[in-house]
């Protein structure tokens, strides 16, 4: 109320005495005994009637002043209006009613009364002051400056006018900064400038709408909605506020409702270019996304991938919808075995919307498919912290298990077989790898090579021992540490080799030249 009370400072003007009192001319005629006259044509009677009206108007004004002092502004307004009806040429009555309207936050009406007051009396300082404050509150800083300069012409030392002139200049500077920042897409700075400007221009819908639009562009939808709704409560036909409401819905992926608001905004303001563009983008985005979904359901993954990519180019400002589009494209990418691209798309989706659980789940699965288990565990932990469901708990446990398993020797990789390999495939793989790394085969190699091949030969034997034993294999596949299970894990690669190939004399390496061997079975 600080600004509002200043806007009506001085309250209602006092009595009619002073520079704004009505002028009462002396009677033009005196009554003459020798002359008969028609009393209905006597100017004295008209003057008496005017005086009575002025006295009655002055009485209404005094009553208005009394209510104003008691802060009963609605009643004060009624009595000032009665005074104006009786004496519509009195500047101070309009000034009083303007002060009252300002206290009722009816600034446009107050502006009209202030303007009428100074039209009737251009030297009415309080009238110019109130007009300037109304302009300032409504965001017209240029017009406000002219009014305050007029006050200073009348009263050069008026400190209040000097301060209000500075406020008007500050608003003009904040407007300039906001315009530059909007072009640079620095929406936070625009919000800051509008907040500062609204400190003096609290009733300016234009500043509020710009702030709301930038809040929407920053993804702060509830705040933007609140500002726009406040404006619409006061002015349901405000096309800018309708546009902002639609923009919030559009950015929250409620496209059908958004289009309705854009259409309504265009009805109120047919030349509203932003509403027209947003409406067109909303319709195009919805259509392209639906085409992509249809192609995906039909199994046309390449087509779906291209359609989602096209949709992503329509409106980079639509954060929530674009997050969904990136996640959809990631799903298609995983189907096309573009796993790294799918991970990248999920990351982009999460960057746009850090609360997007589906994107975390999709990325975690892609990490699992590419055996990046630590990353998968991190994503599943994030999901489980947000939504503690049984399904998410199981996904996390499975990722943790795979991470644990990944830190052990991968016996399947040692043998070069798939995790679903059959018993025969495991035996064949062992035969091949054991012969490949047998120390006798590398007896002529350098000491370093012999050492490396011996190590690999032992790992092959160890892998075969575990994977050829159903019980050990089951425990190994379940992620258990076999040494902790009291199982016999004392591997002798040579004994395993001999047992596999039939014991002593069953197999030998013979040289056929430097570095060449052939195998002989007994």
TrEMBL record:
Family annotation (SUPFAM superfamilies): Chaperone J-domain, TPR-like
One GO CC term, this protein: cytoskeleton
The entry's keywords: Acetylation, Chaperone, Cytoplasm, Cytoskeleton, Nucleus, Phosphoprotein, Repeat, TPR repeat
Compartmental location: Cytoplasm, Cytoskeleton; Nucleus
SMART domains: DnaJ (SM00271), TPR (SM00028)
InterPro entries: DnaJ_domain, J_dom_sf, TPR-like_helical_dom_sf, TPR_rpt
Predominant subcellular localization, coarse grouping: cytoplasm
J domain span: 410-480
TPR repeats by residue range: 57-90, 125-158, 239-272, 285-318, 323-356, 357-390
Gene3D superfamilies given in the database record: DnaJ domain, Tetratricopeptide repeat domain
Protein function: Acts as a co-chaperone regulating the molecular chaperones HSP70 and HSP90 in folding of steroid receptors, such as the glucocorticoid receptor and the progesterone receptor. Proposed to act as a recycling chaperone by facilitating the return of chaperone substrates to early stages of chaperoning if further folding is required. In vitro, induces ATP-independent dissociation of HSP90 but not of HSP70 from the chaperone-substrate complexes. Recruits NR1I3 to the cytoplasm.
Official protein name in the record: DnaJ homolog subfamily C member 7
Biological source species: Labeo rohita
């Amino acid at each position: 109320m600080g600004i509002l009370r200043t806007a009506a400072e001085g309250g209602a003007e006092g009595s009619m005495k002073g520079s704004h009192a009505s002028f009462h001319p002396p009677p033009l005629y005196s009554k003459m005994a020798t002359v008969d006259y028609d009393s209905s044509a006597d100017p004295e009677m008209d003057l008496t009637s005017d005086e009575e009206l002025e006295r009655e108007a002055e009485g209404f004004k005094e009553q208005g002043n009394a209510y104003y002092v008691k802060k009963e502004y609605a009643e004060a307004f009624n009595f000032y209006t009665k005074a104006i009806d009786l004496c519509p040429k009195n500047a101070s009555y309009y000034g009083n009613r303007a002060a009252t309207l300002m206290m009722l936050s009816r600034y446009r009406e107050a502006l009209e009364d202030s303007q009428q007051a100074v039209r009737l009396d251009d030297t009415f300082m309080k009238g110019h002051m109130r007009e300037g404050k109304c302009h300032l509150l409504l965001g017209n800083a240029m017009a406000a400056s002219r009014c305050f300069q007029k006050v200073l012409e009348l009263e050069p030392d008026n400190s209040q006018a000097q301060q209000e002139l500075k406020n008007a200049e500050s608003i003009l500077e904040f407007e300039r900064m906001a315009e530059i920042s909007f072009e640079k897409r620095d929406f936070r700075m625009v919000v800051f400038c509008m907040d500062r400007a609204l400190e003096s221009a609290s009733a300016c819908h234009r500043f509020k709408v710009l702030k709301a639009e930038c809040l929407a562009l920053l993804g702060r939808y509830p705040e933007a909605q609140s500002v726009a709704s406040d404006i619409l409560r006061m002015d349901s036909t405000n096309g800018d506020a309708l546009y902002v409401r639609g923009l919030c819905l559009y950015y929250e992926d409620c496209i059908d409702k958004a289009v309705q608001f854009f259409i309504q905004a265009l009805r109120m303001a047919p030349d509203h270019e932003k509403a027209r563009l947003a409406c067109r983008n909303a319709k195009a985005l919805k259509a392209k996304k639906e085409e992509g979904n249809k192609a995906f359901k039909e199994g046309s993954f390449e087509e779906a991938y291209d359609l989602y990519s096209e949709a992503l180019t329509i409106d980079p400002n639509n954060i929530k919808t674009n997050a969904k589009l990136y996640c959809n494209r990631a799903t298609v990418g995983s189907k096309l075995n573009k796993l790294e691209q799918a991970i990248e798309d999920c990351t982009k989706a999460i960057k746009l919307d850090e609360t997007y659980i589906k994107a975390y789940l999709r990325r975690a699965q892609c990490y699992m498919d590419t055996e990046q288990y630590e990353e998968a565990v991190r994503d599943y932990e994030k999901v489980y912290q947000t939504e503690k469901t049984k399904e998410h708990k199981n996904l996390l446990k499975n990722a943790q298990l795979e991470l644990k398993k990944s830190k052990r020797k991968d016996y399947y990789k040692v043998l070069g077989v798939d995790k679903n390999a059959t018993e025969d495939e495991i035996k064949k793989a062992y035969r091949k790898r054991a012969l490949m790394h047998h120390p006798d085969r590398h007896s002529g190699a350098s000491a370093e090579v012999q050492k490396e091949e011996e190590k690999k030969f032992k790992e092959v034997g160890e892998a075969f021992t575990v994977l050829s034993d159903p019980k050990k294999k089951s425990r190994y596949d379940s992620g258990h540490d076999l040494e902790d299970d009291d199982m016999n894990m004392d591997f002798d690669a040579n004994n395993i080799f001999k047992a596999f190939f039939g014991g002593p004399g069953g197999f030998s390496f013979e040289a056929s030249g430097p570095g060449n061997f052939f195998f002989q079975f007994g």
